[in-house]
Backbone:
């Protein structure tokens, strides 16, 4: 069947049977858990999902902390969209084909805001020259302002508002799998570790 | 009409159930996941409130599905996506294949999608000369072993790490005898990297479609969906029409429930929102698939099954699933929800599934979208009796029981006979091939006295 015929057939089947239902419910915000110290909750949840949060007072500290990390010290290809924190040596905006980014060791990305209840960070795809930069490097660091935090997912979606064409993702912890006998292994296909820097 | 394969769950599960060690190991593995789910559910004080909201949103959406699908189509198109409609599995496979042909594609990378599994997409494409690589680790393991997933969230839950080691040794050249999950995962990571880089088109499922924005959301822990569709220029997303949510903000409810119910995580590692294709040179195709869903919607009794967000919690908690393994259901979606959905598709072939249930109700308790699963399984049993599709091993004893219940004197006598018999019957009389219940269990020792006798003596 052609897709237009299928479309009609499906819609016909759906309209031919009228089903009564209540209108859409609205969430009552007073029923939702919020946190007095959302930053502390965020750090706790991020650790729970295998990520690491670092509180820094000056953005320069990002480099100081990462430099102590042997995997970072050995990294040869680094792309960054937060040059104030780390100056990368691969300019992804000059790359046409995302396949060329396959050998990236580190990416420093920018987060828009954090969610306390689950340790997730919202990353807006438009802040990256290629969205694959979030998934292809061996290691990922996200820099996000400490003031940009919400308690739960309801506040999070409110904050995102109406999406524009493009891509956005909640990142919570490094890539992981437990597909082999339920043993948790960090670093399935995406980043092996996730560092989150909470800057002023 | 050719003979349909009528699959009897007790027969299909025999091998698994009688392998005591394996059945026990499987049971424990799933119970572990179930416990993690409990912890997460308890950590959210408004959990029950969220379940109610989720159920109400779904009930409303399914009732107004035509309207929301059209709205979704309009908005997705405005975002630059191409929306296709597929009446059934064959339609779906043809549409996907046509897109591949249009791009001269011979190699695709695919992230987990129960829908493409339901439609048999892999085989269809392979028969048409296309290399299909499942990129979810569990699915890849299953694919290399020429098996099917035995669970919708944990596709390889039935396979031991030593067996994964064997498979990887054969296909990926890992060390013989290796069984360390860390080492094996690392090998798969390297192997799949190459596949990601050479994939010409990425195919994903869809966890949620959003009517008021035209976006789709895909949730993974491994990041394989994202890697798979961020390298090639074409992304095909296959979506069951019931996956729709009316409003962007509704995602808050469902992203809070999904991962907590599925694996006991507060949210999946990646919750990706796609609104239109990547850029002006890329394409996003969304295939909306019915394949029986609109028919299920017509049923007053089973309509709620369309709420399912495929979290797998009902499987993890089901005492029958945990002990008999997912393959014993011989369906794409096993466990309690599978036993509700499959007879709707083909009541003859799957008539034994509503009986693969102890009616303990645990599935109903954990279901994040409040599908009354065990009520539906009971309803199926009634329906199947009406259709004369109940297995003989059930109808004969049921008729006898019904007669007994209607004759109290006889019932009392039968009870006494039963209590005596349970004490004195030799093992071979209870454990034989006519009684599938006793394949892997012993019968209880009965009380000496019936409740009726006790009541008369003490309270009468
Ligand atoms: S029926 Fe409910 S518990 Fe089972 S998979 Fe679907 S949503 Fe999850």
Residues:
């Amino acid at each position: 069947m052609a897709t237009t015929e299928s479309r009609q057939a499906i819609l016909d089947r759906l309209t031919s049977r009228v089903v009564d239902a209540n209108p859409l419910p609205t969430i009552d915000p007073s029923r939702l858990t919020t946190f007095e110290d959302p930053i502390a909750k965020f750090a706790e949840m991020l650790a729970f999902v295998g990520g690491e949060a670092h509180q820094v007072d000056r953005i320069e500290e990002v480099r100081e902390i990462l430099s102590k990390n042997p995997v970072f010290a050995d990294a040869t290809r680094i792309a960054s969209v937060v040059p104030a924190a780390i100056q990368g040596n691969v300019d992804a905006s000059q790359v046409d084909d995302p396949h060329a980014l396959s050998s990236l060791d580190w990416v420093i990305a920018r987060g828009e805001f954090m969610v306390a209840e689950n340790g997730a960070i919202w990353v807006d795809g438009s802040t990256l020259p290629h969205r694959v930069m979030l998934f292809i490097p061996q290691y990922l660091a996200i820099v996000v302002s400490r003031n940009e935090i919400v308690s739960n997912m309801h506040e999070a979606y409110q904050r995102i508002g109406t999406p524009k064409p493009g891509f956005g993702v909640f990142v919570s912890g490094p890539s992981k799998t437990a597909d082999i006998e339920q043993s948790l292994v960090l670093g399935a296909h995406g980043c092996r570790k996730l560092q989150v820097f909470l800057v002023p | 009409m050719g003979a349909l394969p009528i699959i009897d769950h007790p027969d299909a599960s025999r091998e698994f159930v009688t392998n005591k060690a394996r059945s026990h190991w499987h049971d424990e593995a799933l119970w572990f996941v179930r416990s993690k789910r409990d912890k997460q559910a308890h950590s959210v004080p408004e959990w029950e409130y969220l379940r109610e909201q989720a159920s109400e949103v779904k009930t409303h959406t399914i009732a107004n599905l035509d309207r929301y699908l059209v709205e979704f189509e309009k908005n997705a198109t405005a975002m630059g996506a191409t929306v296709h409609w597929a009446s059934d599995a064959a339609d779906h496979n043809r549409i996907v294949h046509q897109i591949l042909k249009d791009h001269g594609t011979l190699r695709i990378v695919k992230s987990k999608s129960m829908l493409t599994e339901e439609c048999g997409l892999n085989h269809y494409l392979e028969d048409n000369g296309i290399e299909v690589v499942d990129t979810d680790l569990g699915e890849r393991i299953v694919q290399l072993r020429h098996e099917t997933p035995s669970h919708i969230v944990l596709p390889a839950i039935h396979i031991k790490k030593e067996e994964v080691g064997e498979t990887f040794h054969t296909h990926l050249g890992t060390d013989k005898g290796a069984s360390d999950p860390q080492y094996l995962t690392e090998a798969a990571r390297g192997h799949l990297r190459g596949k990601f880089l050479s994939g010409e088109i990425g195919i994903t499922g869809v966890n949620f479609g959003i009517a008021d924005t035209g976006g789709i959301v895909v949730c993974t822990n491994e990041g394989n969906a994202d890697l798979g569709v961020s390298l090639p220029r074409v992304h095909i997303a296959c979506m069951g029409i019931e996956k729709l949510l009316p409003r962007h903000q509704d995602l808050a409810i469902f992203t809070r429930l999904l991962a907590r119910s599925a694996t006991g995580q507060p949210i999946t590692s990646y919750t990706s929102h796609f609104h239109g294709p990547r850029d002006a040179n890329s394409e996003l195709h969304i295939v909306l698939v019915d394949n029986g869903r609109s028919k299920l919607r017509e049923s007053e009794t089973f309509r709620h099954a369309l709420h399912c967000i495929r979290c797998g919690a009902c499987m993890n908690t089901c005492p029958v699933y945990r002990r008999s393994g997912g393959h014993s259901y011989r369906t794409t979606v096993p466990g309690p929800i599978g036993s509700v959905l499959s007879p709707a598709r083909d009541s003859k072939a799957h008539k034994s599934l509503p009986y693969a249930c102890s009616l303990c109700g645990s599935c109903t308790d954990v279901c994040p979208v409040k599908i009354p699963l065990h009520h539906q399984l009971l309803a199926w049993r009634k329906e199947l009796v009406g259709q004369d599709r109940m297995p003989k091993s059930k109808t004969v004893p049921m008729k006898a029981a019904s007669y007994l219940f209607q004759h109290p004197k006889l019932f009392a006598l039968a009870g006494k006979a039963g209590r005596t018999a349970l004490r004195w019957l030799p093992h071979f009389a209870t454990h034989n091939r006519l009684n599938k219940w006793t394949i892997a269990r012993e019968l209880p020792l009965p009380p000496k006295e019936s409740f009726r006798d006790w009541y008369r003596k003490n309270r009468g």
Notes: Residues B 261, 308-314, 337, 366-369, 371, 373 surround iron/sulfur cluster (CB under 6 Å). Residues 1-37+314-390 of chain B form one domain. Chain B touches chain A through 90 residues (CB under 8 Å). The beta strands of chain B are 82-86, 107-110, 131-134, 201-205, 208-210, 215-220, 234-240, 244-245, 270-275, 283-289.
